[in-house]
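We close this part of the discussion by returning to an individual protein. Part of our work consisted of pairing the sequence of a single chain with a tokenised description of its backbone. No coordinates are needed to read the tokens, only the vocabulary itself. The amino acid sequence and the backbone structure tokens for this protein are reproduced below:
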Amino acid sequence: MTLVDDGSGQTAFILTERPSTMRNHAGQWALPGGRCDEGETIAQAALREIEEEIGLAIPERDVLGTLDDFISRSGYRITPVVVWAERSETLRLNAEEVAIAYRLPLDGFVTKETVSFVSIKESPRPVIRIALMGSHLHAPTA
């Protein structure tokens, strides 16, 4: 999490759109992230991926914690790491991994109007979907 870049002081999170040229998940919304390298903790991997993808160098002391693991339909274990980026720096996007990055205010992001659960053939359980800028953000990012 960080601040919205409009000077309002609102708390925001950073969401990226993957380039259309990517081999996997092209054009999808994504939070910065990736796999752990050998010897890394989950927090260290998250901070490295944030720096590689959007150019924010955040110290490990700014990791607030982790959320419950999420097992994706493809079998990946995803451990969300919550980080507070105190400084609202200009993002430096890695064009190979990020086409666009948005700072989305938390206030009003999730409402009864924006959140729904949908059925998909790949899952016996409904999955979450959030309306976003004329499109939808799907689980696990949602």
Q: What stands out?
A: The radius of gyration is 15 Å. The mean pLDDT is 88.
